[in-house]
Every structure is written in C-alpha cells, then in structure tokens.
Amino acid sequence: MAQRILKLLQDEALRRSKSDKLIANYLERNIADLPFETAKSIAERLELSPMTVGRFLRRMGFDGLDQLKRELRRGSSNPAWQVKGPVDRLREDIRGGKLLAGLIQQQIDNLGQIYGLTTSPEWQQTIEALVGASEVYVAAYQNVRGIAQYFASQLSYTRPRVQFVDGLNGTYAELLDGSVSGRLLFLHDVRRFASKARPLAVEARRAGVKVVLITDEFCPWGAEVSDICLVVPGSHGPLWDGAATITAVLDLMLSNVIVVLGDEVSERVERLTRLQDIFGDFET
C-alpha cells in the first residue's frame, strides 16, 4: 500500500503548484513518520495552512490525514514472522540470486534512511537522555528482546546503573516505585506489538519516568505514550522482518554515547576489565 501511495505522489496532477510540490515531496520523504503527524504539524513544517494540506489530501482521494494513515496501516498488516510470498517463487528467486540481492538492497536503503534519523532533534534528545539519566531501564519483548538485552549490556560498559527489565516480577517495581528521580525507560517494540509495551510506557510516564520509544513505521501509538519517539524503517521484503537495521541504529547510538562521555567511558572500561580479570570470565 505504501508503494501505491508513493506512486500516487509522483503524479504530475498532484504537483501543479509550488505548495503541491512541497506537500508531495514532504509526504514522499517522510511516509514512515506519517503515523506521528497531523495536518497541522505538516502545515507548520512547510509554512502552509492546514486547509492547504487538507485540500491536497482530498485530491489524493483521502478525507484527511487519518484516512491516509489507516490506508497505510491496512497495507502493512503482515505480521513480523510471516513469509510474504509464494514459497515456490521464492525458491526460484533465491536460486537465481534475485531474492538475496533484493534483501541486500533493502538493507542498504534502510541504512541510508538511518542518516536522517541520526541528524534529527529526537536523536540528540535520546543521546542526552541516555547520558544524563540517573538510571536507565531497557525493556523489549518477543523477537526483539535479545537485541535490547545486547544494547543494555553494551550501554552498561559506557555508564553505570543500566538494567534490562523483563517484567517477570509482575509489577516492574524496580522502575516504577518512584524511589529515584531522573529515571529513563528505553523501550523497544516493533510489529507485532507486545501487549505490555504500551501500558508500561503509560505507567512509566505517570510515575515521572522519561520514556524513549524506538519503534518502526507500523506503530500507530508511539508518539502518544513516549517523550521521545524514534522511528526506524520497517521490513517490506518477502521474508519475515530482520534485525539488521535496528541493530545498526543501536550500535550508532552506543558510539554517539561513547563520544559524548569521552574519558569517562575509558575509565569505566578499565574498572570493568580489572573486575573481569579478578573473576576470570575471559581467557588471558
């Protein structure tokens, strides 16, 4: 469905005036972020009136931005763990190299989009939050849980008081008990969305915990429940969703934190290395 809308935005009939071109180009470049936009926010970014944006959307065939969002969600309803194509054809494609070449190109395209994310205000706000929080709690579920645990482990080498929370105690009390101010919840959730993710974010903010959510373009509620929402490209390929893009984003985030903290990271790594030597976890 996103491809149909992108093709529609290229129609010359929708690009007749200067404002038409501004809106069409903006929607085309930021289609992944539309779930978090309103007609008013788009108009403000482009220095146009909301009525101008509304008229453009009606010419596209949509009765406002909400209908366009619903159309995008409906076209992206495949679950994360579903092979999205006829198996026989996929076998032919992989034997000819076409399938893997397409997947590699998709990853390259996604990595290209990451640059825009790293230069956004939300990225800088996230780095400042990770560096300045009194405690950082990382949470994720299902097939992205392992990636989030990796991030929490790596982040703990750069700064103290980092913890992965699994919610097995049934309360998330270590995060929500209010005993320490300045806490941060770094929540990672992508389609198919976990039932606990949204209520955890809501309760965290209610408890005065800042919430950073890293999610994909299929999430319709991210901006509503978080202080900072980072949206990464989702998978549109014929196979189930992979982790290459999100892992790259998290590695870049760790690198950015290391640069900001500077010598503090080196000192911490030296202390941890000494402890590792004492307890013998690694070969010499």
UniProtKB/TrEMBL annotation:
Matches recorded under InterPro entries: Homeodomain-like_sf (IPR009057), HTH_RpiR (IPR000281), RpiR-like (IPR047640), SIS_dom_sf (IPR046348), WH-like_DNA-bd_sf (IPR036388)
Superkingdom of origin organism: Bacteria
HTH rpiR-type domain location: 3-79
Leader peptide range in chain numbering: none
SUPFAM superfamilies to which the protein is assigned, alphabetical: Homeodomain-like, SIS domain
Protein name: MurR/RpiR family transcriptional regulator
